[in-house]
Design brief:
Elements: H1 5-30, H2 35-45, E1 82-89, E2 95-101
Antiparallel strand pairs: 1-2
Length: 132
């Protein structure tokens, strides 16, 4: 059986969340509360996001630093289907951000080269990890 990294990570995350939720479920069951009541109480604790991106628990926050389709410093577009991400120290106190994207070749709407790949010709092919 061949399983993709994305599929493995997604399923692992679901299992981890399930075990975290199971602890709460058992605790609520001991108090005589149903799963529906648990879900309602958990949802009621979330603060509604003004931008309708993600509702978070109180005192949690997020910052959006780039969105799919925005122009990056290199002139290409921020790809869609964000996946893993890491940062590394750069020169002059800068931070290098490396973000993985799970874009299939047929998904041109998420491409950093534009929907018709018109920006592809402007890239030095030697700088591409996988020009294919």
């Amino acid at each position: 059986m061949n399983i993709s990294r994305r599929h493995f990570l997604r399923n692992s995350g679901v299992v981890a969340l399930a075990f975290a939720g199971l602890r709460n479920f058992v605790e609520y069951a001991a108090q005589g509360k149903s799963a529906k009541e648990l879900a309602a109480e958990t949802e009621a604790q979330l603060v509604t996001d003004f931008y309708q991106t993600i509702d978070l628990p109180p005192n949690f926050s997020y910052d959006i630093f780039s969105e799919t389709g925005e122009v990056m410093d290199d002139g290409l577009l921020v790809p869609g289907k964000h996946d893993g991400m890491a940062t590394f120290p750069g020169a002059d106190g800068k931070t290098i951000l490396v973000r993985n994207h799970e874009v299939e070749p047929s998904q041109s709407e998420y491409s950093p080269f534009g929907s018709r790949r018109s920006l592809f010709r402007s890239v030095n092919r030697h700088k591409l990890y996988d020009a294919g």
